[in-house]
Amino acid sequence: MSVKYVPVIWNRTKLAYDAVVLATVGAYLGIYLYVAPQFQTVTMPIDWDIYKAQAFGTCVFFLLTFILCIGPMARLDKRFLPLLYNRRHLGVITCVLAYFHVDNILGWYNAFSPINRYVSVFIVNTSFDRFLGFPFEILGVLALLILTILAVTSHDFWLHFLKPTLWKFLHMGIYLAYALIVAHVALGALQSAAGPFMTTAVGASVALVAALHLLVARKEHLFDTQESPMDDSGTWMDAGDPTEVPDKRARIISITDDERVAIFRNGKKLSAISNVCAHQNGPLGEGKIVYGCVTCPWHGYQYRVEDGRSPPPFTEKISTYRLKLEDGRLWLNIEALPPGTYVEPVVAPILAEGS
Amino acid sequence: MAKKKPDPFFIGWAKKPPKVLQGFLFLISAVLVGAAVGVALGIGASVPDPGDARFEWGAGYQTFTGYVDAKPYPLLRLPAGEDGRDQPHAMLISGIGKRGMQQLAGPLDGQAVDAGGILLKRGDLDMLQVGGDVSLRAAENPIPNFTPAPAEHLGKWRLSGEICDGKCYTGAMRPGVGLAHKACANLCIIGGIPPVFVTTTPLMGSQFFLLADENGEPLSSEVQDWVALLISLEGEVERRDDLMIFKVNLDSAKQL
């Protein structure tokens, strides 16, 4: 969290994160470029520029695969949440590597010709009516354009400028970029320049991304279709037994398909806030009360549980909801209050501190 | 008193991740680096063999004397012995980079020439990248008693294979075939490099055919749509010295 814009707010976690990412990328490129050739069974080596393009291109593909796996992995197992924290740096590194891939391609395949190498990408293959033979380079160009937009707008300045909903929508473009890259690889490299290992690895990567997302979608669907009884007025929803809400943690209640509420317990007090973090729509209900504030599991944004406001000097605020306790059961008023509205917590004497 | 169950919670801006997560994060980091090593080794070590296509830089600048055929694409017709072969040889020629030799070869069509440059080789195939001092010029000392043999007509055939550019396939790039190389091949063909047809099975011992249209002229730009695909083509085959020429109608092309 920050109240001013700086290029990167470095902290120990980000440094460690980036160190691991750079070690992974360095290991991949180092082994690909300098060790793997010792094990090739080729009459003569592949041209260095083409080989470098393959190394960078495949690295980009696997990094993107990993990026897309982080979200669902963190939904399925909270231990993966730290991978999500600095995912933007991973995205920017991926974009930079994609430019190295392009530079090697343009400097070799598209070079040595009277036609400008940048222009040639768009004019030398126009078989748009074919499947095999389709100008797969254009797919790569579109993916690069998306990756560039995402990298440029990855800073929190753009998040605040565009507002979280639009920013999030824009950054869902990563899926389109991945689809374009899969098609780019399938219609290009896999048709001639790849060995069986790469074909298998690409197929397994796509299957992994699809399987993880389907698993999460199923989990979310099952959660959203759980029906909680309403009272006669239709405004209060049964939120269950308060003793089942763990201390400092929350129970998430689904009001509609796209609205969830997090009921937090802080000792004997219970409060309800929106489940959606104002920063990047992170699932606040999967967070924890730390230093008296609800802390988002994604990037650590904090909110006071009683009024949904970030502690000063921060200005973020989210909706709050009213709760009531009747006959030992907790009831949630499904009408969201304006963001930042103070609501007196419900005190449940039955709850013991720290239980 | 019951021991409180640990409830680790990661906060990015905190000084350290919770202790119970540190081992897991270390394990994930090790798995990531290990996977990177394994995948890079697996993919890098299993690349398909691009063949022995190469520039013969080690042989240095070479000059040849023979005749030039400008159509369908510039060829050198060399007498036996001129390049170490015991039979007359028809050698493809190209300019530097992705440029053909039509401009220089056209006015010299059918004449004795000297040609100098760097050889490209792939097995028995070769091409001369013309340049340097000699370049392509009327022969200073034509080889006496040598006239190229007329083309031998070998009938009509339907052949299966891939259209490549003659220069990358012969040695300018490894790999110089396949869809990943299509844009490069098209740039070569646009620049005047001869398109060639590399067949899946040999015809009379040859899998390498210089392409021409039905009239023996250069192919139209339509050929670019068929480059790098596995296709079949129908046309007349003729032989000039040891080089097969496949005179095709691109309307006969079928993707396989």
From TrEMBL, chain A:
The chain crosses the membrane at residues 15-35, 55-76, 88-111, 131-153, 165-187, 193-216. It is found in: Membrane. The keyword Iron applies. Keywords: 2Fe-2S, Iron, Iron-sulfur, Membrane, Metal-binding, Transmembrane, Transmembrane helix. Gene3D superfamilies: Rieske [2Fe-2S] iron-sulphur domain. The keyword Transmembrane applies. Pfam families: Ferric_reduct (PF01794), Rieske (PF00355). It comes from the Bacteria. Its cofactor is [2Fe-2S] cluster. It is a multi-pass membrane protein. Residues 236-332 form the Rieske domain. Belongs to the bacterial ring-hydroxylating dioxygenase ferredoxin component family. PANTHER family: FERREDOXIN-RELATED (PTHR21496), RIESKE DOMAIN-CONTAINING PROTEIN (PTHR21496:SF0). This is Rieske domain-containing protein. It comes from Pseudovibrio japonicus. The lineage of its organism: Bacteria, Pseudomonadati, Pseudomonadota, Alphaproteobacteria, Hyphomicrobiales.
Automatic annotation (TrEMBL), chain B:
Keywords: Membrane, Transmembrane, Transmembrane helix. The chain crosses the membrane at residues 20-45. This is Uncharacterized protein.
